[in-house]
């Protein structure tokens, strides 16, 4: 495999002997002292890197360095902090292609989607730079004469970021770019499956740090570790905020540990996303949206479409269109032009998909197409599958689960109220969509009686959100919101200030205490 892009990014500066560093910031590039860990490419199973994982002691030392950096950074004016983020964004633009290649190598995403992920990082930089001149609080009317009330937003502290393999750069950027302009230090534990993506990001950050001596060098750091490091971060009181993205199982564990010390957690967990296709839908538009949302990233997006709830009068026609579209999908090496579906991340993911299909069939599901492993015309050693559609009843138990693979469950409904109920009747609440030309149906779907998800779309698929909106979901998706809108408030602490500029001391609520 041609890996020149790793050299172009300067990743070899983190290689000591044969092992990559596991603790990296602007001041440190240390090997880990824990167990040996190898990274593998989903493309062909080839080993891509070898590490010793970081230990809790190494995390502890980095946490101290990050606190020192935070103490300096929090007094740097926010617009100056924004200049650092702007420079990071410029460098991400410059190295966009190489960065995307690292994503494809480690996460198996097709190159256009990997380029889109880097673009998301670049866009978040632009957004954060603008925010660095905002971060505004309110002025509030005081009930007392000669008094003024206002609120200020102050930097929070070092923020622990734990992330999943499937968005190995974008999720970090949502947290880090906003956290940095908000005045925080960022300590990142990426997925063990995508360590080179994290080191690639740190090379970009370190380049910006080299050019900007006023920025504390430990303000951004990476710790390559396993779940034990994530747990240590979750229990550590020095992190006022733990932002964790991944499975609901992981989020429950992190949420409990952070909650036990009354810290803040920002959880972005699994989805079980649905699209209602009404009898009033433009079926061709719906078809295009379904295919991208269900098979894009080989079904490995938190917002991947898992369930289509089609009106009984259009279900059969839609099924036929979908089967036809699935037959022409190009599955294979994600680096090749025109390929639309790359590999699953690993063998476990493949086994999980097969188990889910087995359960679906046992529960009365009928496979309409796909599901099998593909071994012809694909790199050997990778787990390539044909995206699958299963016709199933809405009350089948398997439909309640998120299986992180390209399985689409197709079910039918009679009334719009019933469709909304089916859609909401799962433990997760991330992304949802309706395809309809009926204004009434669309408005009902968006109303308080409608979708209970964090993202609810009309005539747009469930995946591919823009960075300007707040991203996240309800129920077992964790309730967190990242990226746009006012998500920046997660990374700051609010201080309500009352100032008495008069000569008396009136008490609130008219209390007389004399
Ligand atoms: P995962 O839960 O296996 O791992 C995610 C991260 O959590 C990794 O860094 C892992 O090392 C760490 N971790 C695991 N157990 C932990 C624990 N007990 N304490 C602390 N850290 C722990 O998830 P994955 O397989 O990498 O990613 C797929 C999952 O992520 C899917 O469920 C997907 O829906 C979800 N996801 C959600 C979003 C979102 O924004 N809602 C975005 C991307 C992925």
Topology:
Elements: H1 4-9, E1 15-16, E2 19-20, E3 23-24, E4 29-30, E5 36-40, E6 47-52, H2 56-73, H3 78-94, H4 96-107, H5 111-131, E7 139-140, E8 147-155, E9 158-162, H6 170-181, E10 185-189, H7 195-211, E11 220-223, H8 227-235, E12 241-245, H9 248-260, E13 264-268, E14 273-277, H10 283-295, E15 305-311, H11 315-327, H12 347-362, E16 366-369, E17 373-374, E18 384-385, E19 388-391, E20 407-413, H13 416-424, E21 428-429, E22 431-435, H14 439-446, E23 455-458, E24 470-471, E25 474-475, E26 482-483, E27 492-500
Parallel strand pairs: 9-10, 9-12, 10-11, 12-13, 14-15, 14-22, 15-20, 19-20, 22-23
Antiparallel strand pairs: 1-2, 3-4, 3-11, 5-6, 7-8, 8-27, 16-19, 17-18, 21-25, 24-26
Helix pairs in contact: 3-5, 3-7, 4-5, 4-7, 5-6, 8-9, 10-11
């Amino acid at each position: 495999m041609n890996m020149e892009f790793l050299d172009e990014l300067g990743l070899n500066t983190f290689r000591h002997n044969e092992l990559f560093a596991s603790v990296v910031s602007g001041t440190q590039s240390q090997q880990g002292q824990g167990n040996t860990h190898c990274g593998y490419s989903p493309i062909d199973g080839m080993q891509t890197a070898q590490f010793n994982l970081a230990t809790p002691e190494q995390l502890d030392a980095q946490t101290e360095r990050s606190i020192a950096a935070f103490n300096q950074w929090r007094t740097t004016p926010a617009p100056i902090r924004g200049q650092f983020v702007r420079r990071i964004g410029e460098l991400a633009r410059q190295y966009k292609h190489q960065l995307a290649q690292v994503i494809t190598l480690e996460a198996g995403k097709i190159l256009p989607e990997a380029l889109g992920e880097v673009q998301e990082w670049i866009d978040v930089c632009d957004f954060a730079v603008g925010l660095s001149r905002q971060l505004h609080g309110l002025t509030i009317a005081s009930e007392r004469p000669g008094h003024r009330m206002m609120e200020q937003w102050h930097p929070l502290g070092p923020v622990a970021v734990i992330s999943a393999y499937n968005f190995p750069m974008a999720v970090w950027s949502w947290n880090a770019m906003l956290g940095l302009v908000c005045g925080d230090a960022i300590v990142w534990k990426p997925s063990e499956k995508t360590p080179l993506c994290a080191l690639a990001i740190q090379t970009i950050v370190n380049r910006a740090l080299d050019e900007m001596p006023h920025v504390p060098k430990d303000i951004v750091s990476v710790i390559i570790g396993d779940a034990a490091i994530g747990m240590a971060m979750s229990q550590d009181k020095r992190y006022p905020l733990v932002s964790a993205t991944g499975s609901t199982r992981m989020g429950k564990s992190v949420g409990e540990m952070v909650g036990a010390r009354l810290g803040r957690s920002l959880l972005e967990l699994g989805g079980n996303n649905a699209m209602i296709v009404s009898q009033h839908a433009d079926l061709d538009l719906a078809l295009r949206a379904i295919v991208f949302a269900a098979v894009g990233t080989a079904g490995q997006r938190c917002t991947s479409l898992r369930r289509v709830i089609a009106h009984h009068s259009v279900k059969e026609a839609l099924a036929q269109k979908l089967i036809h579209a699935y037959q022409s999908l190009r599955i294979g090496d994600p680096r090749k032009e025109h390929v639309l579906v790359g590999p699953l991340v690993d063998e476990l993911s493949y086994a999980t998909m097969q188990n889910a299909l087995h359960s679906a069939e046992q529960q009365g599901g009928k496979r309409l197409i796909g599901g099998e492993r593909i071994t012809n015309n694909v790199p050997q050693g990778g787990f390539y599958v044909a995206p699958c559609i299963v016709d199933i009843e809405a009350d089948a138990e398997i439909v309640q689960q998120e299986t992180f693979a390209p399985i689409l469950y197709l079910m039918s409904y009679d009334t719009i109220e019933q469709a909304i109920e089916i859609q909401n009747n799962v433990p997760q609440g991330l992304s949802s969509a309706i395809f309809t030309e009926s204004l009434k149906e669309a408005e009902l779907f968006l109303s308080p009686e409608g979708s209970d998800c964090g993202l609810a779309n009309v005539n747009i698929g469930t995946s591919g959100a823009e960075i300007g909106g707040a991203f996240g979901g309800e129920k077992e998706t964790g309730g967190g919101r990242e990226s746009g809108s006012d998500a920046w408030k997660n990374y700051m602490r609010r201080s309500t200030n009352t100032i008495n500029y008069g000569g008396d001391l009136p008490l609130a609520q008219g209390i007389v205490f004399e």
